[in-house]
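Hey,
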Amino acid sequence: MSYPFVQASRDRAATGRSIATTLSGIGLAVGLLVARLGMGVPVPVAVPPAVPSPVAVPNPGGHPGGGGHWLSIPADAHGSCFVTGSINGGRFDHMLLDSGMSGYLGLGRNHAARAGFDPDTLSYDQSFGSANGEGRESEVRIREFRISIGGSSFVLHDVPAVISEAAVFAPLVGIEILQRLGLRLAGDHCEIRLP
């Protein structure tokens, strides 16, 4: 006996490709790239709009250590917050603040060159598993990571990072950096503190 609903639920990537084909077939101008949720298996998602402008807020929610400039970053329709930053001098307009990513930074093969690495010479000798599947990545060191908003900057040097063998949607800013920024998720926005 055949259970077509079981087969359909097993192939989520095919479902994503089907949706992408349908969208392009009806003439919607939707740019599709590949995202790796939690640095897992690639899944198609739409390109986010331009990074919304952060708004300065007075020590929101009574954060401890209220020094620095607190900024409120509007979330997109999916509740994700993006910032513009640089890695080794290469500019990235959409860096996802990913509180679910352990570590510091996660990039895809498609971001390697802009961050100063040759994707063809990286070893990809580390394997990882996530809720989305398994993959391979290369461990690297980032000379300089920077987020600059207005007159404030947050800079880290000699930052551990991983570059996935697969292309990913956006560089991920992981929990090790987000804790230093005092990240707070608050409904339709994220709050971070820059010095």
